[in-house]
Amino acid sequence: MKTRILYISALLSAALFVASCKKDITERNQEFPALAPANIDLNADTWVPILTGASTFTVATPEAITTPNYLADLNEIKSYQKNLNSEQKDIIKYWSAGSVLRWNEILRELVAKHNLPPYQNDNGTYPFPSATNPLAYPLFPFSNPPYAARAYAYVSAAQYDALVQAWKFKKSFNRAAPYKNDVNVQALVPKSDLPAYPSEDAVVAGVTAQMMVLLFPGDLDYIQKKVAEEKLYRLMAGANTRSDWDAGENLGKQVAAVFLARARGDKANLAAGVKDDWTKFETVATAAGNTPWISLELPHRPPMLPLFPNVTPILLPAGTVAAIRPAAPFKEGTAEYEKDMQEVMAMSNDHSREHERIVAFWADGVGTTTPPGHWNAIAAEEFVKHNYSEVRWARNLALLNMAEMDAAIVCWDTKYFYFNPRPTQMVAGIKTLTGIPNFPSYISGHATFSGAAATVLGYLVPERATEFIAMANEAGMSRLYGGIHYRNDCTVGLTTGVKVGEFAVNKGKADGSN
């Protein structure tokens, strides 16, 4: 089974052609009920933040509710409420589902927009997205799974810290919502005893918009449009005054500065590597007597983010990535390897309808939110049922997405440490049900992401822990059913993801939120 082939499918070529075109943001907003937290988590000011525990932030003391400025703010709200049109009512309905939820949706939309690998140049090379020129082709960023996992993690963690800091000022100033200070202000969202100053929605919008400066610089106009829309919603709904909003947005920007400094120094900007890096992986694998992975695209595409293992984890302690790295994959010619290869070939020749369904459901390829985004959507659907407060929403998504980012680092470390070829490289004629990713086989990224996500979600929603692990197992096995991974890639990936997820669980148990 040492035959090496180049396998190019018409479907893959078509996908790459589509990737060469500019893609607009396609909003997939679901309808959700207005957020009415069962518990406002007023003690969240005592929760342990991710990065900002030792930071000092400032928020101006609010004016008294009897001052002319505050009364003018109330009058602004009442003027909006006199003449609400259908579009404005739709804005209120949309954002009332929750700021963290809606910004998570927006982030997933941006990832899907940018999850398009560049088409090759005429000379057979491939262009790289550039943060210094984000609007040139190919658009920056290319939101492949590791980049997407990092984006989800930084945004969610920054939102969580911003809200913890906001809760401190809320308790300190204790200024009620406009609808509690003026009987003529209508509450067009569920009423809450949570202090309104600074605005929690504004804090989330402020920190998120600033994070986008780094993560999606070409979409800042769209992001600012969403910020303005959310601000208008809070005023029209009677939930915040303009001064509530301004204080919150300013605080969010202060918190974002801490996370932006961290992100700019985490070595993600070097993850693409250069040709010498790719050649070294191949040389090391050959010297060890193994068949090195090669790109199955023509022309050969550079491997996806081979230096992503060097990115600084957001959750794992130093040195943990190598410690978690699993043992080597089955070596070619061994009984274990032959058994796994025969299974791939058998599935290639006999796809069941159920396997086709599973492969399609978990494909998460080009133009999608990626596997981490898929698990964010699963989490969002679940969290809505529990009526969490904004700060708990943010905390839960931060745990999930920090685990996903570090799972990406551990998975990519394993992939490039062993540089193991996929089944389709080793045997001609394997029929796949999904695209062949452009990076080594062992371990499965889908399985690793899913093991981490299921572990965190099982901790957050323990009554569904068994179901989440079953979903993670199905996600991992979908790559075997699709003909692009060995079983061992999937089972070891799942186990490795669970190990990463346990670090997030331990952090959650110690953050004071329970």
Automatic annotation (TrEMBL):
SMART domains: acidPPc. Keywords: Signal. The keyword Signal applies. Residues 397-505 form the Phosphatidic acid phosphatase type 2/haloperoxidase domain. SUPFAM superfamilies: Acid phosphatase/Vanadium-dependent haloperoxidase (SSF48317). Pfam families: PAP2 (PF01569). Residues 1-18 form the signal peptide. Coiled coil: none annotated. It comes from the Bacteria. This is Phosphatase PAP2 family protein. It comes from Mucilaginibacter gilvus.
